[in-house]
Amino acid sequence: MSHHRTSQSSRLLLHRSVLAAVALSLPMITGVAQASPLSMPAPLTFSAGPLGKLDVQGIASGMAFYQDFPQGAAGTLGAKHVGADITNGMVIIQKNTGPLQFYIQAGAYSFPTLAAAMPSSTSDINFFGAMPVAYLKYAPSSDYSVEVGNLPTLIGAEGGFTYQNINIERGLLWDVEPIVSRGVQFNASKGPISASVSLNDGYYSNRYNVMSGLLSYAIDGSNTVSFYAQGPLGNIRTSSPQVAYSAIGTSSDIYGVEYVYSSGPWMIEPYLQYMHTPKSVRLGIPHSFSNYGASVLADYSFTNTISLAGRVEYLGVGGKPGQGISSSAAGLTDLPADSHAWSITLTPTYQDDGFFTRAELSYVAASTPAGLGLSSFNNTTQLRGMLETGFMF
What we know:
The longest helix has 8 residues, at 121-128. The protein is globular and about 60 Å long. It contains 4 helices and 17 strands. The chain has helices at 20-25, 121-128, 247-251, 326-333, and strands spanning 44-47, 53-67, 82-95, 100-109, 133-141, 144-152, 180-190, 193-200, 210-218, 223-232, 253-263, 266-277, 289-301, 306-317, 339-352, 355-367, 381-392. The protein is mainly beta.
């Protein structure tokens, strides 16, 4: 993964009753909700003097993996066939009552992603630092709020951190989306309609000229449809000292529509996404290109402690090798230009209060130009097995 994107499970409250337990345990940010079978336990509450009552939550988890074709550079975790690392070492402190609120999430994290080199927590923490999400929130009423700071993106259906998703690894579509953006966000809701608009720095450019938005409509208690979009308002930086920055991502327009069905033990969430990157001599993009894809996420709960999640995806990557776009496309998707990939992921999960463990089997197959592939082996398939376990409080 070579650029950055984050969403918070805190955005669920306005969008999906199936995840009410998660939404009630985290502060609400209007946004595209993520599917997640992991339910955070009730937070610890303590008095902080003039700050009032604060909630504290945390998660500590690690993973072990096997992969048949490693993609990482020599000497890194991603170059190993078998390895292990921390996925989350996070503490969350928040104040979610009164007109002035705040949210702080700090610690270690990693972003394992399909068709991308397996990352380590020590490398991924360079993306957004040890405090990846932190913002102030002004909420004069339950129907309106304003947030300022490091905000989770409004784009996409999967969260940035592993515990926020039904699968351990994030998918192919997630790999082209932003994770965290710095800026200001306005949220409003009225009846079944909720909306958010944000002026931010896109893919962590530190230049605040990107606009993103989300509009959701709850058809009834089981069905919700959402539309999201993001694009630049002016010239963007050609480079940035920020490790997380992607000039290609920030210069692109991205659109998506998703539908969520939630009833009984089922959660089903299909979504479509389209991304267009315009020609820019200044950014070294000689020709425009587009990425487009579709995904279906599903989760079925057999009991209160056991569930099975699945994801099927397709992603098409634009550009033509030899036109100077190959590196640009790879910078967004970790796939070669002019390639197509599909994936399937299965994740059985066991959770008992704050303890959870889950296994995962994923398979990616790609159609790529001659001589190119998913790794230095030029393979066009990849099989991964993973195990993640940890505690939440």
